[in-house]
Amino acid sequence: MQKSSIPNINKNNLSKNISSKIGVPDKYSEIIINDLIDILINFLKNNELLKIKSFGSFKVLKKKSRIGRNPRTKEIFKINSRKVVNFSASTNLKNKINKNV
Q1: d(CA 27, CA 44)
Q2: What's the farthest any 2 CA atoms get from each other in the chain?
Q3: Which secondary-structure segment (H or E) carries 60?
Q4: Whole-prediction pTM value?
Q5: Which pLDDT band, with edges at 50, 70 and 90, does 9 fall under?
């Protein structure tokens, strides 16, 4: 599998971008980002649906337990039930992304 040459943005880069854009110290923007992430996680834990207008929606899906198989060793094992987060981009976000294409 070939690695992408486009770097991912991390919290540090994101906080620097925010601090330069709104003119606050990096430490404050880092606190804002961490608090925002905590709020989003807690909201998803409690409500299972989070809609952010003009961005998209996050939905918690419940996966049932099932039987899996290791493709290398052919060993069979149980995959426990779990919750996963699904993201659906809004039409507005899709249009903005595809506008430059």
Answers
A1: 26
A2: 56
A3: strand 56-63
A4: 0.71
A5: confident
